[in-house]
Amino acid sequence: MNVLAKNGIGKSSAENDQMKKLHQLVIDAIKEEKLIIDKLQHPPEELFTKGQKLSDKVAQFGGSWKFIILFMVILTVWIFYNVSMGGKEKFDPYPFILMNLILSCIAALQAPIIMMSQNRQEDKDRKRAEDDYLINLKAEIEIRNLHQKINLLMEEQIDKLMKTQEMQIKLLQQLLKKDNQEQLKKIT
Question: Stretch 4-19: mean pLDDT, rounded?
């Protein structure tokens, strides 16, 4: 019985050491995860030129309902004014050549500006995809590490159970020997 008590105390301190190590690994992983999350939530500010900022704002405005509604109102007023007014007050009569020229110029300027903005957005999306890949890779590595740790813990538990079972068998054999010896003494 003393043997079991000594082994039980030794096992508990070994288990405590192992638990401390596992606990520290978890704490380190959590700290590292916080760094990744902080990096993703607060990415470093990119320095844009004034032209890039302007192109982003133009693209944002050009792709909004505000732009569409405002543009339709201006075109309607333009057409209505030039059709309803008579004589010299018309600045762009019916085929609306001036309006077509202005619309063509707006389209010619707006298209490359929107393309520049889309290129920058594509770069941002590529960076986001790289970050997602790194996070997924880290998660996969963490999952593999956890599987290895669980397997290691299971193997250690099996070894402990086997050793405990061996000790119990030895103790039972000793008890059987003593019992058999006592039975023999009673018979003789």
Answer: 57
CA-to-CA distance for 29 and 26, rounded, in angstroms? 5
- Cβ proximity of 19 and 11 under 8 Å: no
Closest by alpha carbon to 62, among 119, 122, 124, 118?
118
What are the pLDDT digits (tens) for 94-115?
A: 889 999 999 999 999 999 999 9
User: Which distant-in-sequence residues (6+ apart) come within 8 Å of 171 by Cβ?
Assistant: 3, 4
The structural domains of the chain, with segments of one domain joined by +, span 46-148
Other C-beta atoms lying within 10 Å of the C-beta of residue 16: 10
Exposure pattern of 33-63 as b/e (b: 16+ CB <10 Å)? eeeeeeeeeeeeeeeeeeeeeebbebbeebe
Q: What is the DSSP-derived secondary structure letter of residue 74? A: H
User: What is the DSSP annotation of 121-147?
Assistant: HHHHHHHHHHHHHHHHHHHHHHHHHHH
SS3 state at 64: coil
